[in-house]
Design goal:
144 residues, 6 helices, binds D-ribose
Length: 144
C-alpha cells in the first residue's frame, strides 16, 4: 500500500507544534509534506492556509494539518477554499467528530491555546478515524 502523504503548515504561532507533530507523523508511518513556515519569525497565516489548499487541490496530499496561535485565523483562511473542510479542534472528541460527521480533510490546532499533549492526541484520532458517510454526506453536499 502506498504511504499516505500528510501536508503540514503553520505560522510562527504554530511553528513549535508543527515541528513536534511532524515527528509524530513520521513515527506513525506517514510521509510529511512541510509547507512552512521555517522558523518562529512573524509571517502571515493566510499564506500558509493557501499553501495547504494548493497542496490538496494539486493532489500532493489528501489530508493536512494547520497550526496558528489560536487556530482561528488559519482555519477561517483555509475554509475560504471550497475543497477544504478545516476543523479547529480542542479535544479528542471534536477530532473524532470532525472526521466521522464532517469528513474534515484538514485538522487545525492552536499552538497557544492547546497543550501539546492534547494536540498530539487529536492528531492521532484525526488520522485514525474514518468518515461515516450517509446522512453526513448529504449535509456535506449541501455545503458544497
Ligand atoms: C499571530 O500572532 C496570531 O494572530 C495567529 O497565529 C493566529 O492566532 C490568528 O488567528
Amino acid at each position: 500500500m502506498p504511504i499516505e502523504v500528510i501536508a503540514i503548515a503553520s505560522d510562527h504561532g504554530g511553528f513549535d507544534f508543527k515541528e513536534i507533530l511532524k515527528v509524530d507523523l513520521k513515527n506513525f508511518g506517514y510521509e510529511v509534506l512541510d509547507l512552512g513556515c521555517d522558523n518562529d519569525s512573524s509571517v502571515d497565516y493566510p499564506n500558509y492556509a493557501n499553501k495547504m489548499a494548493e497542496a490538496i487541490a494539486g493532489g500532493n496530499a489528501l489530508r493536512g494539518v494547520l497550526v496558528c496561535g489560536s487556530g482561528i485565523g488559519i482555519s477561517i483562511s483555509a475554509n475560504r477554499h471550497k475543497h477544504i473542510r478545516a476543523a479547529l479542534v480542542h479535544n479528542t472528541l471534536t477530532a473524532k467528530l470532525c472526521r466521522e460527521h464532517n469528513n474534515a480533510n484538514v485538522l487545525v490546532l492552536g499552538g497557544r491555546t492547546t497543550s501539546i499533549k492534547v494536540a498530539k492526541d487529536c492528531l492521532k484520532v484525526f488520522l485514525d478515524t474514518g468518515f461515516e458517510g450517509g446522512r453526513h454526506q448529504d449535509r456535506i453536499d449541501i455545503i458544497s
